[in-house]
Amino acid sequence: MELIDILDIIIIITIGLFFYRLIKKTEAFKILLGLLIVYALYFIALQTGLERTANILQKASEVFTLGIVLIFHPELRIALRKIGGIADIKVTEEKEVITSIEEAVFTLSKQKIGALIIIDHHQNLINHADNVVSIDAKVTTELLQTIFHPNTRLHDGAVIIHNHRLAYAGCKLPLTGAKRENFSHLGTRHLAAIENAERFGVIAIVVSEETGNVSVVTEEGLTRIKSSTMFKAFFNEDEEEKTWLAKILKNKKK
Fold it and tell me: 20 to 30 A Cα–Cα from 93, which one of 83, 177, 217, 247?
């Protein structure tokens, strides 16, 4: 197989995966699956010499294809708009996630409810955590507040955010218990945040249960966040920086 053929296959697979992610949770996915089944039956009928059956299935698939275009015209228009503006969507998702986290942590801070939120871009940490509960939900202020409410079963663990989604909750993060002279006054949440930020390159947001203080922890260390304005500035979108970690490291060096 030549290199151009391999490249051709890779492009087709990539496009297929993109559209799968785009429609996997919609009604269009079920209809598309049905259409693929019709095509598969058509191919089998054609190969086995069932010409009349193959002809009927071919006509049916053509009608179904036209029906999909007509029925899902609005969804197709939205999908094409997303393809054209995928960079803008990513930036919007990041801002929405940051806003939801900011609103949640400062509400929890006022109530002195402890919280530990991990932003793990590359899923470096998840394979080392215990008691993991899969959530896979949109990051919202209400969901974060509910998870960390003292009366819920998941409130003692960490929340892990990946790919702009609240991926896991109730996570028990690895903690060696190594002594840290400069942080001996901090509790378990802060120590877990510091250690895992250092080991796995994640970003951790911590709310202290004792004081209500909000802190952000990166590989560069711990920073106390005193206001919502400071929180937003810490995660401020810069045109030349396209990842949260790069933005934070830049701010830390100033």
Answer: 217
